[in-house]
Amino acid sequence: MHSNQLDRSQVIDNLRIALIALTDDEHSICEVAERLDIFCGGFAQWTFTELKQRYPTIVRSRPRITPQELRELANRWQLARQSVMGTKLACDTQSREGRLRTCRGWDEWSDDDLARFHADLCHEEVEIDSGETAGGAGGSAEPANP
After folding, report:
1. Of 23, 44, 55, 98, which is the most exposed, with the fewest CB atoms less than 10 Å away?
2. Which residues of the chain have pLDDT under 70?
3. pTM (predicted TM-score)
4. Across-strand partners of 108?
């Protein structure tokens, strides 16, 4: 099968359209990806310990938090950050975040990862033109502390 050649930003634009269609005012892509077992896997990609490390402010005020409670609060936190940042998708928010970053957003993924996600979600195989090296939506930084 012949695949189309797109640059990284075009692939991200296509993924953004597909992913936004799955979200709403109560469900971030992190929650949706976990629930539907798509894309990055959302919150499910991390163990409970790793999730607590990514959301220390939530955990600090709730030392006996359960995994389900943490995922619910992390979902609300992502939606709140989207509102503050004026974005419609947590991937865009996280690509632009500073110290409140919980993942690297689009920068988290290699070109091969994005091409695989594109095939799964957009039903089209693509090759990413590696002439574009940036992550498409922002610089890199380590996960930080909401």
Report:
1. 98
2. 1-2, 132-146
3. 0.83
4. none
Domain ranges of the chain: 4-129
- The gap from C-alpha 59 to its chain's centroid, in whole angstroms, comes to 21
CA distance 40 to 30: 8
Report the C-alpha gap between 145 and 115 in whole angstroms.
30
Per residue in 18-38, is it b (16+ CB within 10 Å) or e — as a string? Answer: bbeebbeeeebbbbbbbeeeb
Nearest CA to 30 among 40, 21, 15, 20? 40
Q: What percent of the chain has pLDDT over 70?
A: 88
